[in-house]
Design goal:
Helices cover 28% and strands 31% of the residues. The protein is an alpha+beta fold. It has a single domain, classed as Peptide deformylase (Peptide Deformylase, Alpha-Beta Complex), CATH 3.90.45. β4 and β5 form a beta hairpin. It starts with 25 loop residues before the first helix and ends with a helix.
C-alpha cells in the first residue's frame, strides 16, 4: 500500500468530472487500497480518486473515526434516492485543509455502487455516513465544498488556500 499525495485547492483538477470505470482490475483495487491508506494517514473520513489525481468514479469512506472495520470502497457510486429531510453539518475536506463550512445535505440516501469484490450493491445510508458519501460523490462530479457557500466565504477560503500553497512552496 502507498500513501498518495492529496491535491489541494485551488488546483483545477478538482473540477474535473470523473469517468465511470468500465473494467475493474488489479490496478483499480490497488488504487482503492492506496486511497484508504491515504485517507487514514491524512487523517480523514472520506476520499475520492480525483483528490489523488485520478479522474475515475471511486471513493473510500470510513465513518468509524479510526476503527478500520467499517470502511467502504465504492466504484461508480450513484445516489438513486435522497430523503427530503435534510441535516446541517460542519464539513471539512482533505483538499481544503483547516477549512470548515456548514452544508445542508439529505439525511438519508440510497446508493448503487460496485464493491471491491466486483459485486453491485444497493445500500441505504443515513446521518454521518450519508453526509460523507454525498460529499465524496460531489467530488466525482467536480463539485467542491466551497460551491455550497456564499461567494464572499468562497473567496475568503480560496485566498487562504492560495496563501497556504504559497507558504509551502
Amino acid at each position: 500500500m502507498s500513501i498518495l499525495p492529496i491535491i489541494k485547492a485551488p488546483d483545477p483538477l478538482l473540477r474535473v468530472k470523473s469517468k465511470n470505470i468500465l473494467e475493474i482490475g488489479d490496478s483499480e483495487i490497488k488504487l482503492l487500497n492506496d486511497m484508504l491508506d491515504t485517507m487514514y494517514a491524512a487523517p480523514g473520513v472520506g476520499l475520492s480518486a480525483i483528490q489523488v489525481g485520478v479522474p475515475q468514479r471511486m471513493i473510500v469512506v470510513d465513518t468509524s473515526r479510526g476503527n478500520k472495520i467499517s470502511n467502504l470502497k465504492m466504484i461508480n457510486p450513484e445516489i438513486i434516492w435522497e430523503s427530503e429531510e435534510i441535516q446541517l453539518n460542519d464539513e471539512g475536506c482533505l483538499s481544503f485543509p483547516e477549512q470548515f463550512v456548514e452544508v445542508m445535505r439529505s439525511k438519508e440516501i440510497k446508493v448503487k455502487y460496485i464493491d471491491e469484490n466486483k459485486k453491485t450493491k444497493l445500500s441505504n445510508f443515513s446521518d454521518f455516513q450519508a453526509v460523507i458519501i454525498q460529499h465524496e460523490i460531489d467530488h466525482l462530479d467536480g463539485n467542491l465544498l466551497i460551491d455550497k457557500v456564499s461567494s464572499i466565504k468562497k473567496n475568503i477560503i480560496l485566498r487562504k488556500m492560495k496563501k497556504m500553497k504559497k507558504n509551502l512552496a
